[in-house]
Write a structure and sequence with these properties.
Helix content is 65%, strand content 6%. The two termini are 37 Å apart. It has helices at 2-9, 16-27, 36-48, 71-81, 93-104, 109-133, 138-168, and strands spanning 52-56, 65-69. Helix 2 crosses helix 3 and helix 5 (93-104) runs antiparallel to helix 6. The longest helix has 31 residues, at 138-168. It is elongated, with a radius of gyration of 22 Å. The protein is built from 7 helices and 2 strands. By secondary structure, the protein is mainly alpha-helical.
């Protein structure tokens, strides 16, 4: 969140509420509304870490402030912009659950796989509905399309897990 806020302050700076409005406007109702408290807490930390400065808006009785990047803030933002996001997704709650349940013999691993497959298919149906509704902007549409692609890969991965369980005749 820190770097996203820095990016949205780039240029002329902004009020905390403007940062929230920008995020809400780009992602619409696809993500939970961004918590204003989280944004202001982030702004306070950025100020403490001397990545932003703030100044009160003249004549505003509510204490409205404009936040602007410092040189250190611009450097941090530049570093973030030029660093790719990790592609590694090694942590999987489902696989951890499957291994733990199979090891403890709490349930049939095949049933867990099938239940997960049904969940992924429901999610795909819901995402397809969002895509067809055409009520979201281009940023939100890309978010939905990315989720669809990840779910398709997850379905293939479930097939791989299932085939290895059956082919090797073992429980993880």
């Amino acid at each position: 969140m820190k770097e996203v806020v820095l990016a949205l302050l780039h240029g002329d700076g902004a009020h905390g509420y403007e940062v929230k409005q920008t995020l809400d406007g780009k992602f619409g109702d696809l993500l939970p509304a961004f918590n204003a408290g989280q944004i202001y807490t982030t702004l306070a930390r950025l100020t403490r870490d001397e990545l932003v400065t703030s100044e009160a808006v003249d004549g505003d009785a509510r204490g409205k402030r404009v936040y602007r990047l410092t040189a250190a803030g611009r450097a941090t933002l530049h570093e973030w912009v030029n660093r790719p996001v990790s592609g590694m997704r090694l942590k999987s709650e489902f696989l951890m659950k499957l291994v733990a349940v199979a090891t403890a013999r709490l349930a049939d691993p095949g049933r867990l796989i099938e239940d997960q497959r049904l969940e992924y298919l429901r999610s795909l149906r819901d995402l397809d509905g969002l895509l067809q509704s055409a009520r979201h902007g281009p940023t939100a549409q890309l978010l939905v399309e990315g989720s669809i692609l990840h779910l398709r890969a997850d379905l293939e991965w479930l097939d791989l897990i299932e085939s290895r369980l059956v082919d090797e005749g073992r429980i993880l």
